[in-house]
Amino acid sequence: MIDIDSKNKKIEERFVCVDCISDHPNCQYRTIEKINQQWNHTKKQQDRVLSELKTKRQEKQEKLNQQIAIMRKNYNQQLNEISEKLITEFSLPPTSKPIEINKIKQTSLQQLSNEELLSNINQILQNDKENMVQDSKIEYLKSKDSVFQKEIQSRLEHLKQHEQLDIQESINILQEIQNDNQIQGIVQLQQQIQESTKKNQVQLIYKEDLDELINSSKYIYCQKSLLNETIQKFQEHLAKIKTFESKMQQSLDNLVFTSIQKQTNEYKNKFEKDFNQLMKFCEIEKLEKNFETLQQHYEKSQIERNQYLESIEKDYKLKIQKQNNIIEELENILKNTEDKLKNKVEEENLLNERLKEENSKNEKFQQKLNDQQIKHDKEIKSLNEQINKIRTELNSRLQFKVLDIKPKILTDDYWIKLFFILQEKSKKTIKEFQLIFQGTRDGLNNNSFWNKCNGKCNLLMIFQSQSGYIFGGYSPCRWQNNTSYVQDDTLSSFIFSQTHDSIYPLILDKKKYAIYCNSGYGPCFGDGHDICINSDFKDGYSNIGNSYKLDKYDNKKSTHIFGQEKSNITECEIFEIKFI
């Protein structure tokens, strides 16, 4: 195995056997076969990249050679045309023989004979005609030279434009920029016309217009490249000025730098003034881009607005359709209701007619019933008066007896109420109340409680807590020491609270947990327990609602019965009840 990833490692330290790999867990070892595959893969990639590079270079060289050949052909062709034009058009025509001005003799007219004078006059006229012809030729040559000069200047200007365009195309080839020449189709059309003019002379009419169009297009594209380059150079130069100005501001302590900064500011202002129009043009380009962006955002917002309006229109149509469906359903319901109502009215009319007939038949019977009812009401009233009189007498006697045996802790009203509940629950008449345990007399502890109550039944227990809460319980079950839970099949056991004026009856499903008997505790009611008095009558708790029914709005905590968390009993009275 070989380690080729680690650096600064000797060659002999890179080789390890398979068993020694675990000694170097941080190194990544590879087999010779895998390394060989990796090297072969890398070499193939390098060969492929070199091959692609070579192909691209050959293609670029071929394109440049073709472009240079085209440039050379165009230049030679245009220069030859200009040279031929110069040879044919710019050379002067052969001059006529010199005018023999000196033929006229320089003598006085008086000395000349008539023949000589006539000959001289004819000679002068001839010379004057020749001078006029010569002047017209000179004017023609001047105008011709001016036209020819403009033509040569135009050809040289076109040659310059071709040169700039060809150079730009050559630079694009070197920089591998795709040449998107918009006049390529026009150039090809021109070449087709030049070839076809040899056969069809009619198309010669369009050749000059096409030449002018192509030259103008080439000029515009050349000027476009120059303008882009000028803008780039202008922005770079302006950035250099600002950079230099910021550097000068850091060296204001030196007077020389201060002077240079002043001159730099003057140059900057002059530069911005001179190129003010170009700066505006650059801003126009930015504004155009911003305008295009805004236009795109506007179009996008318009599309979103149209989509939103379409969705709203669609929802509106759906809602209208739903409303129409609802209206249609309501109309059907209204129609059905009207039909049913009509049927009901008809039925009621029939019933009313029958009732009238029945009423007419039962009037006599009703009269008899009314008479009997009056008679019975009088009898019932008389009986109720007698019963109330007897009940009043019994209550006065019974109340006197009940109050005679009232526990000290309970109020008179609540004791009377509790007395009748005991008779109602047991379904028996109370014969006797016997006080068998009083906490302040016998002692508030479990031993005193069991000594007085063990083996007894039908016990009513009344407690008063330290908070002044008065409560208690009754059960017909026998309080037998250490028998655990005792079942009440009569369901006459209950817990009461004078403080809340409430009775909590035993739940049917919990009747086997009516009371709990354990010598380590005092009296306990229910499972869990609903009331639990510990051995010292101070400690204890209440979970009322476990076995004795609690109203859903009452509080289940110990404070509901005791008035505090623990029992803290200050007085306890236990009565044994005997029934008839």
TrEMBL record:
PROSITE patterns attached to this UniProt entry: TLDC
Superkingdom of the organism of origin: Eukaryota
Ranges where the TLDc domain occurs: 408-578
UniProt KW Manganese keyword: no
PANTHER family: GTPASE-ACTIVATING PROTEIN SKYWALKER, NUCLEOLAR PROTEIN 7/ESTROGEN RECEPTOR COACTIVATOR-RELATED
Region forming the signal peptide: none
Name of this protein: TLDc domain-containing protein
Coiled coil (UniProt feature): 43-85, 284-393
Record keywords: Coiled coil
